[in-house]
Specification:
- It contains four helices and seven strands, in the order βββαββαβαβα.
- The protein is globular, with a radius of gyration of 13 Å.
- The protein has about 110 residues and is of the alpha/beta class.
- The protein has a five-stranded mixed β-sheet with strand order 1-2-4-6-7. It has a two-stranded parallel ribbon with strand order 3-5.
- The model has no long low-confidence stretch (mean pLDDT about 95).
- The protein has a single domain (about 1-105), classed as Transcription Regulator spoIIAA (2-Layer Sandwich), CATH 3.30.750.
Amino acid sequence: MKMELHGDALRVSGGQELHAVNAAAFHDAVKAAMTDAVKDIEIDFSHMTFLDSCGLGTLVALRKLVGRRGGVVRLLNPTPAAQQMLELTRLYRVLEVVKREEVAATSG
């Protein structure tokens, strides 16, 4: 997993699965990488092949953490499987989901 600071956002990439076995470690790693300047968390979901309820819970916990700072959790380019989980659970209402075209338009 790779983490980089981009302005007031922490960008997380390299994860393919977020589930009961690794969710707590993922949360702890992201939290440890956050500086006082971090407002938003952006997670690359373009390679996410498996996401379970523990992984979803971790995303909500991170949302609460940055919400106190006025920030958001932004999921970038979710795979169809991840997108389906977000839709079934309606978490797209709580987490910001950004598709490939939107990412390209904002990163230029």
